[in-house]
Amino acid sequence: RSSAKLVAPLGCLVSRQKHTLPDLPYDYAALEPHINAEIMQLHHSKHHATYVNNLNVAEEKYKEALAKGDVTTQVSLQPALKFNGGGHINHTIFWTNLSPNGGGEPKGELMEAIKRDFGSFANFKEKLTAVSVGVQGSGWGWLGYNKEQGRLQIAACANQDPLQGTTGLIPLLGIDVWEHAYYLQYKNVRPDYLKAIWNVINWENVASRYATCKK
């Protein structure tokens, strides 16, 4: 009886589809001059692809450890799952947060929420930029939704830590401040990159995420 009970969960593990690199909803050169094509190509086809590949490897090893009841190996794989899983989650959000038709200011409920929680759009923009500039080393600046409080909140995450998995905030807008996101174009001047990225923020996508998480 006990062995029969294992068939379903192990079968689910065996049949799990591997993660894949999502297609960009625009061409690599579409965000120029704000983010150039070379950065986008390397960022998407190399960096994000590496996170996806490494996540699949880590999950396969985890599946084997789970089947063997090898808790030590399961625990040892947690950093790889967090880093590569977070990298995949974060970048999948990031690509949709950007658009060649982006920029400007949000509208509707999202704009009203920004004014309510930050005083004005200008204040929000200044605060998220400052938090993103201030990330030490590599990481992300985020606009998230605190479901318990029903409010927008700004946060920073180190490395590839996923926002929701590490803070509980639902991600709405993420700004990648790893050097691979800007160095080829902006060198070590992160503030210049952060000034430019506001020109390609896809506010329709951010607003859609906000509407979804409020339901």
UniProtKB/TrEMBL annotation:
InterPro entries: Fe/Mn_Superoxide_Dismutase, Mn/Fe_SOD, Mn/Fe_SOD_BS, Mn/Fe_SOD_C, Mn/Fe_SOD_N, Mn/Fe_SOD_N_sf, SOD_C_sf
Record EC number: 1.15.1.1
Taxonomy, superkingdom: Eukaryota
Domain Manganese/iron superoxide dismutase C-terminal: 106-209
Molecular-function GO terms, alphabetical: manganese ion binding; superoxide dismutase activity
Major location (coarse): mitochondrion
Glycoprotein keyword on record: no
GO cellular component, as recorded: mitochondrial matrix
Catalytic activity: 2 superoxide + 2 H(+) = H2O2 + O2
Essential cofactor(s): Mn(2+)
Subcellular compartments: Mitochondrion matrix
Key words, A-Z: Manganese, Metal-binding, Mitochondrion, Nitration, Oxidoreductase
Top class in the EC scheme: oxidoreductase
Sequence similarity: Belongs to the iron/manganese superoxide dismutase family.
Role noted for this protein: Destroys radicals which are normally produced within the cells and which are toxic to biological systems. Destroys superoxide anion radicals which are normally produced within the cells and which are toxic to biological systems.
Entry protein name: Superoxide dismutase
Annotated source species: Cisticola juncidis
Annotated gene: Sod2
